[in-house]
Amino acid sequence: MTHAAGITAAAGSAHADVPPGDYVSPNLAVVRPDAAFPMMAVGDPKAHPWPYLRREIPHLWRHDRRYPLVGFASRDEASILYNSALAFRGRRALEIGCWLGWSACHLALAGVKLDIIDPVLKKPEFLEGVKKSLADAGITRQPTYHPAKSPGTVNELAAAGARWGLIFIDGNHEAPGPRDDAEACARCAEDDALILFHDLASPDVAAGLDYLRDAGWQTMVYMTHQIMGVAWRGRARLIEHTPDPRVDWPVPEHLRGYTISGWAPRG
User: Fold this and answer.
1) What is the DSSP letter of 224?
2) Are 235 and 264 in contact (CB under 8 A)?
3) CB of 46 within 8 A of CB of 67?
4) Alpha-carbon gap, residue 138 to 10, rounded angstroms
5) Is the dihedral of CA 218, 114, 80, 68 positive or negative?
6) What is the rounded average pLDDT of the residues 89-105?
7) pLDDT for position 3
8) Is 192 exposed, middle or buried (0-12, 13-18, 19+ CB in 10 A)?
9) Beta strand residue intervals within the chain, DSSP E
10) Quick check: 107 and 93 in contact, CB under 8 A?
């Protein structure tokens, strides 16, 4: 599979095109729009102040050189976004929290019609930076940008008739933000919908997935660097994921009741 701007996607057990230090589940296709993010660099998470950053995981942790305390989704996590979005090609999708556009790029490369909600886009340098990165990645149809906060903007768009089949929540990580976002998104998701979360290592973020589980959605966890979660209903298709078998994955206590895709504890 080949995209504009020379971005290639490949799948296979070896993933020869994945850089050392990265991992991608063998069954998933890989896209590498790295050249469209020239300020992205490998960071050292050891001194990072956030208590839920999983410093013990040996996968590469990347950030923007200008903003070293905010990390990007890992290569494995970005591949989950891309492969999940492939099943929604041509359909409307929503991202809450795009930061500098790395995750948005992976969603847009899969061909969804993307809405992005993020108050950081009120700053012209952020909005123009995201637009440039996506254009440099070969994305010809820019997302619709909403420089505002969630869940209020989700509710406003829903009141105007918006519905989404794919939703990615990576916004406010402090309680009750993730749960509030999940509740708003559940009301305006399509009947056949899939909702993804990033940073379930934080119990505040996991509360959003808890809400959807308790509301009757099917749920599962992807064991990645920062842990992703997925909730789905109807005929939505979710991907399977195999965690890196070289890692002895620690499971946070607040996630022990969830099924983890492709993983069983050692011993």
Assistant:
1) S
2) no
3) no
4) 17
5) negative
6) 98
7) 39
8) middle
9) 9-10, 30-31, 40-43, 61-64, 67-71, 92-96, 113-117, 144-146, 164-169, 189-198, 218-222, 228-233
10) yes
Hey, how many other C-beta atoms are within 10 angstroms of the C-beta on 91? 17
Backbone angles phi, psi at 257, to 5 degrees: -90, 0
Residue boundaries of the structural domains of the chain: 6-255
Q: Which amino acid is at 23?
A: Y
Q: What is the DSSP letter of 10?
A: E
Residues 6+ positions from 256 with CB-CB distance below 8 Å: none
The token pair at 178 is 């993730």
pLDDT score, position 8: 45
Please tell me whether the overall predicted TM-score, pTM, comes out greater than 0.90 for this model.
Answer: yes
- The fold for domain 6-255 equals Rossmann fold (3.40.50)
Distance (Å, whole) CA 127 – CA 106: 17
Q: How far apart are CA 248 and CA 199, in angstroms?
A: 18
Average pLDDT over residues 88-99: 98
Q: What is the CA radius of gyration of the chain?
A: 17
| Cα distances (Å, whole numbers) of residue 193 to 2, 165, 212, 230, 233 | 27, 4, 12, 10, 6
Instruction: Give me the sign of the Cα torsion angle 238, 239, 240, 243.
Output: negative
> DSSP H helical segments within 45-151, as ranges?
75-86, 102-109, 124-136
